[in-house]
Task: inverse folding
């Protein structure tokens, strides 16, 4: 759906924050995703998992948000890990070489557990 | 025969939804494969954002988006009357560099080049004209 709104929600599993993105993360909507990540980072919560199971589209604006979050998280000793990538999002991440710098999991729970292993 | 369809809009981010809707309507109506739409949408978004960022750095201006679903290729043309900006001169980003050296700049143009079969630019009569072509098959 072209008009699928972009939505963000967050939940917590132990000390891991899970950010659920859904809809389309484009230049117009990605600031909303940025706010979600930045508010976690600002409160010192830098172990993050993005669940993108309902994210159907991402552009370079969305990638910028993820990259900024990743850099900040790692600088603070945390990480931002990705999970449940759908085809368009996976393709864009591969085309831009982001698959080399992000740790990516098939399932959200795998990404969460990876922080404890 | 299907000819050109055009959309004129202010080059503002909150008009992106209108751009996507226009693309879907024109390309869907022309029987373009559904699988091509995400690539075309992404290339067009990146091109439109470049116009907003570089052609109109100090405020918004108008952008004309043209779409021609030809027999072999979909041709998309973006025209604006902003600052001359040739996106094809943007250096290719190093997509293999480590995190600390990653720059986000240039990724949009990299995506356009990767997704499209042909990309050309000219500045003519006060207009930036970017043309994107993608094979239909």
Result:
């Amino acid at each position: 759906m072209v008009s699928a709104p972009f939505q963000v929600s967050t939940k917590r599993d132990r000390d891991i924050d899970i950010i659920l993105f859904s809809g389309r993360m484009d230049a117009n909507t990605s600031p909303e995703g940025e706010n979600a990540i930045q508010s976690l980072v600002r409160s010192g919560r830098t172990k993050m998992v993005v669940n993108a199971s309902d994210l159907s589209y991402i552009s370079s604006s969305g990638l910028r948000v993820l990259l900024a979050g990743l850099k900040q998280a790692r600088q603070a000793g945390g990480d931002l890990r990705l999970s449940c990538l759908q085809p368009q999002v996976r393709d864009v991440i591969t085309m831009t070489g982001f698959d080399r710098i992000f740790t990516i999991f098939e399932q959200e729970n795998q990404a969460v557990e990876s922080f404890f292993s | 025969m299907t000819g050109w369809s055009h959309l004129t809009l202010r080059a503002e981010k909150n008009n992106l939804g209108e751009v996507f809707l226009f693309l879907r309507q024109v390309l869907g109506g022309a029987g373009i494969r559904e699988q091509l739409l995400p690539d075309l949408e992404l290339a067009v978004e990146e091109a439109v954002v470049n116009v907003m960022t570089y052609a109109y750095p100090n405020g918004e201006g108008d952008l004309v988006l043209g779409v021609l679903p030809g027999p072999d290729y979909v041709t998309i043309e973006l025209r604006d009357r902003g600052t001359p900006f040739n996106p094809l001169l943007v250096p290719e980003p190093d997509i293999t560099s480590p995190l600390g050296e990653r720059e986000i700049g240039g990724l949009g143009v990299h995506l356009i080049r990767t997704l499209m079969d042909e990309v050309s630019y000219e500045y003519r009569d006060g207009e930036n004209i970017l043309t994107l072509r993608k094979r239909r098959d």
User: Anything to note?
Assistant: Strands of chain B lie at 5-10, 62-69, 73-80, 118-124, 127-135.
